Amino acid sequence: MPSPTSRPRSGRLRDLVTLSAPLGAGLLAACSPARPATERPAALADAAPVAYVAGVAVSDAQLRPGLVEAAGAQVFSDAVIGRVVADRLAQLGIAITEQDRDAEVQRLAQTLDDDPDTAARLLRELRTRRGLGDTRFAALVTRNAGLRALVRDRVVVGEPAVQQAYRLAYGRSVRVRLIVAPSLARATALRERASAPGASDADFARLAAEESTDASAAQGGLLSPLRPDDSSYPRSLRNAADRLAVGDVSPPIAIDGGFALLRCLERLPAQDVALDTVRPAIEAQVRRRAERVLMQQAARELVSGAEVVVLDPVLKAGWERERDGLLEAR
Fold first, then answer.
1. 247 lies in the same domain as 292
2. Strands 173-181, 258-268: parallel, antiparallel or unpaired by DSSP?
3. 7 in a structural domain
4. 9 in any annotated domain
């Protein structure tokens, strides 16, 4: 099951499948343009050395099978999405400009941090972790700009969504620790220990670190503040947290994949911030979220209708996994 605490930032980079260049000549024949007449024939390109090891030449053809196994499916999936997005833009007469690409980079940086210098550093670190070199990152930016252009006229920023986003940012919340156990019997036994006379928050944190199957175990079960409208947490958790007094431990709560216990640390009142003073920022946040959902939907629709023929059996198996994962992520 998805962890109750696996809550990525609003940028959701992984949800928008990145774009890349092909690993080698011929891999993307099903979705690549014709080769210019000035290019070397594929056989010569394959035989040309790309490196030397102890004086012995290593060719692209020698590397390609391992590269296909290691990352071919992701790279090919990115290329397929890039092609179908570009084709749809061409059909609609929409051109992606450098200004559009620059805006995408700025949006991505803003999801990482509000401070420009910190955001730039985090973006560099993100690119390093994800293997987003100049080619892949440029393709990611172009792909996202294209998807955004395809959906921008369908984005609606409604007042109910604005109100909900405002409550998520400034509404009342509860600070809690979490333990997730694999069975009701185990959760019940842990609750008896966590709520025994004299049991403290430190005791609950230790139990979470030792026993919890949730990712939050690494920080003693501590979660970000729970808000009633925060749908990134299961409703059952939010409802239980809303009923707890400070120091209370909840009964076992059924969630996907197990049973949860919560301990209430603090109840935080709503912040004294009027909606009108932050409305522009809240509406921009709602628009970005709606765009992201529509962009993911557009990518799925384009991929589902694409005619893709993959000849390499290893690449085909990997592509089918990538495609199925994208189409099932609804």
1. no
2. antiparallel
3. no
4. no
pTM of the prediction? 0.69
H runs (alpha helix) in the chain: 42-47, 60-67, 73-92, 98-112, 116-130, 134-151, 159-170, 184-194, 201-211, 235-243, 275-304, 313-328
Most distant pair of Cα atoms in the chain: their distance = 82
**258 and 119 part of one domain:** no
Question: How far apart (Å, rounded) are the C-alpha atoms in residues 155 and 275?
Answer: 21
Smallest Cα–Cα separation from 297: which of 157, 174, 177, 155? 155
Q: Residue 6: CB partners within 8 Å, gap ≥ 6?
A: 215
Same domain, 145 and 23: yes
145 forms beta bridges with none
Opening angle at CA 123, ends 153 and 15, nearest 5: 45
Find out whether 303 and 319 touch, Cβ atoms under 8 Å: no
How many distinct structural domains can be found in the chain? Answer: 2
291 in the same domain as 152? yes
pLDDT averaged per 10 residues, the chain (length 330): 48 35 32 44 67 91 88 90 96 96 93 91 94 93 96 94 94 96 96 94 96 95 92 91 95 94 96 95 93 94 92 90 83
- Residue whose token pair is 């026993």: 211
- Which residue is it, tokens 């099903």? 30
- The answer to whether the CB of 226 falls within 8 A of the CB of 173 is yes
DSSP states along 311-330: -SHHHHHHHHHHHHHHHH--
- Going by C-alpha positions, the residue among 114, 90, 100 that lies closest to residue 144 is 100
Torsion-angle region of 142 (φ positive above 0: left; ψ -120 to 50: alpha; else: beta): alpha
Chain centroid to Cα 21, Å, comes to 21
For residues 264 and 232, give the distance between their C-alpha atoms in angstroms, rounded to a whole number: 19
CB 24 within 8 A of CB 314: no
Q: Is residue 240 part of a domain?
A: yes
Looking at the fold, whether 185 and 204 belong to one and the same domain comes out as yes
- Give residue 244's domain range: 172-268
- Write the CB contacts of 320 (distance below 8 Å, at least 6 apart in sequence): none
